[in-house]
Amino acid sequence: xxxxxxxxxxxxxxxxxxxxxxxxxxxxxxxxxxxxxxxxxxxxxxxxxxxxxxxxxxxxxxxxxxxxxxxxxxxxxxxxxxxxxxxxxxxxx
Length: 93
Hints:
By secondary structure, the chain is mostly helical. The protein is built from 3 helices and 2 strands, in the order αααββ. A hairpin with a 2-residue loop joins β1 (about 80-85) and β2 (about 90). α1 crosses α2 (about 15-60). The chain is elongated. About 0% of the residues are buried. The model has no long low-confidence stretch (mean pLDDT about 85).
């Protein structure tokens, strides 16, 4: 069976080109997906480290937990809440 595939690919340059481009597309698509996952994880780790360093510096300055929570909360976007009822999902605020 593989002999037939190899013979067909070697005889038809158009099929060979399509096979190479298809394989290259699949490999590149997987690589781009893997890179996107790794860079997002790296960004989240760095963001957490920066946030923790900010909290530690505020603690070193003697700020209270309420003051730290106010400062940290000021830099974040509010999360929308979702209410579920018989009519379906409803976004709130």
